[in-house]
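Checklist before submission:
- one chain only
- standard amino acids only
- sequence pasted in full

Submission:
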Amino acid sequence: MIVLMAGLPGTGKTTLARELAGHTRGRVLNKDEIRHALFSVDEIEYSSQQDDFCLQIMLQTAGQLLQLHPERFVFLDGRTFSCRYQIENVLNASAALHQSWRILECVCPEEVARRHIEEQSASGAHLAGNRDFRLYLEVKARFEAITLPRTVIDTGQALQVCIDRALAALRQ
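Returned file contents:
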């Protein structure tokens, strides 16, 4: 199964994806890690074009992983999936791979997201050099509501509550 980790920056997508991968023996494919593996620092541009390219690499990798282990969960992380076309690209790839899909949309209070972003920025814990609260506000302003079936997870709750809710959604 391919799992889209959707949501604004700082809402806990990566934390939840990593936990879920551990609980399901799944794999997390993270756009920012892939971008840094493919491009040198001076080639990274944080453009939609480069994001889309990295997502295509993620989908090709997901296909290879799912050929080897069809029962595996592959979590697509590092992309907000804030535009319909981004989700449609994943759903088209899922269909071509004969894989089911789920969307987990992470949400939390704005101040929680701000705190996560600021803490990760101060510690250097996040790879994306453009990730700050201004980016959060920009993505929020243009975020297209997800109209497809999804599970909304309030990551302002305890992590175990979020994990339990997500695992229940993956089992459906």
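Reviewer check: The longest strand covers residues 101-107.
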